[in-house]
Structure formats: structure tokens, C-alpha cells
Amino acid sequence: MNKTWTELLDRAYEAKKNAYVPYFGFHVGAALLGENGRIYTGANIEGASFGVTVCAERTAIYKAVTEGVQKFKAIAVLSDSEEIIYPCGICRQVLSDFVEDDFTVICGNSKKEYKVLTFGELLPNCRIPI
Ligand code: THU
To answer: What phi and psi values does residue 3 have, to the nearest 5 degrees?
Structure first.
């Protein structure tokens, strides 16, 4: 296994412990690798008005961006489930502002088993020419 991917999965696994999930009870963790070599972690934060819920991936992205980092190499995401999870549509759209098509997306499960995709595979044809 690629050493960077292992580290990102480990950090995502740790990050999911801080998820705030009183409604779904579904812990998700993410670890985002910046081009600066730093890792930004995130967990999902739910709200009683379900629309306010923020996924683990977006938490990690927003943490990094608000610390001045806008260029990224890879993200890992995993949950409590034995099923591999993949970023939701909103997170894919948010990622599209910050990553190129060759950005690496590591989708894992609770056993740290994983599948690797490129962002271009995850959300093809998403660039808006404005
Ligand atoms: N969730 C994430 O944090 N990331 C994903 O990729 C999928 C879904 C969260 C949102 C909500 O708290 C719970 O998982 C169920 O959708």
C-alpha cells in the first residue's frame, strides 16, 4: 500500500472519533493532504435542522482553506461502516473548486480497506467556463 495513502487513512480513522452525530450516529472522518505536505483532518457535524449538516470532507477543506491553503494532492474518507463510502455530491462540487482532475480520492471503510479514484473519475465534466 502507498505510504501516503496509509497515513491519510489512519488520520481519517482518528478524525472520525470527533464526529458530532446525534441524529444519524454515523461517524465519518476525512484527511486532506495539502500541496504544502500538511494534513488537514475533518469529521462530520450534524444539526437538528438536517440541512446544516457538514460532511467530514467539507470540514477538512474548510479548515485548510481558512488556514490559507488552497492546493491539494489527495483526500481519504471513511466511516464506521464496513462498506466503502464515497464523497457526496455537495462535497464533490466543493472539491471541484480546489482540485484538478488528477487529485487522488481514497475511499475507505471501517477496516481501512479502500478504493482509489481520481477526482476526474468521481465528478467528470464539472468545469464551468466562467
Ligand atoms: N457524511 C459525510 O460526512 N461524508 C460522506 O462522504 C457521506 C456522508 C455524513 C453526513 C451525515 O452526518 C452522515 O454522514 C449521514 O449522511
So the answer is: -60, -40
The ligand 1 site (C-beta within 6 Å) comprises 21, 24, 26, 28, 44, 46, 53, 55-57, 77, 85, 87-88, 91
Give tens-digit pLDDT for 28-87: 999 999 999 999 999 999 999 999 999 999 999 999 999 999 999 999 999 999 999 999
Q: What is the pTM of this model?
A: 0.97
Q: For helices 56-65 and 3-15, what crossing angle results, to 10°?
A: 100
What is the distance between the alpha carbons of residues 126 and 60, in angstroms, rounded to a whole number? Answer: 21
Cell of 9: 487513512
Q: Could you give the domains of the chain? A: 3-122 (3.40.140.10)
What atom of ligand 1 comes closest to residue 44's alpha carbon?
3
CA 68/CA 47 separation, integer angstroms: 27
